[in-house]
């Protein structure tokens, strides 16, 4: 979302869709009750390799 001006983030459809995805995954993680590696590993790989999100953004 780096190309979206901060003032436009709140009304942006792509940001809203991403938020819905995040909440869906959070629900899956909570339901996993600690057995979440199969959920987090592909998510982490996608963020690191496809989206090129630096690790320091998650600290």
UniProtKB/TrEMBL annotation:
Keyword entries, A-Z: Cytoplasm, Heme, Iron, Metal-binding, Muscle protein, Oxidoreductase, Oxygen transport, Transport
One Gene Ontology MF term: metal ion binding
Record's subunit section: Monomeric.
Subcellular location: Cytoplasm, Sarcoplasm
GO cellular component, one term: sarcoplasm
Any single Pfam family the record assigns to this protein: Globin
InterPro entries: Globin, Globin-like_sf, Myoglobin
Top-level taxon of the source organism: Eukaryota
Cited PROSITE patterns: GLOBIN
Catalytic activity: Fe(III)-heme b-[protein] + nitric oxide + H2O = Fe(II)-heme b-[protein] + nitrite + 2 H(+); H2O2 + AH2 = A + 2 H2O
Record protein name field: Myoglobin
Organism annotation: Cirrhinus mrigala (Mrigala)
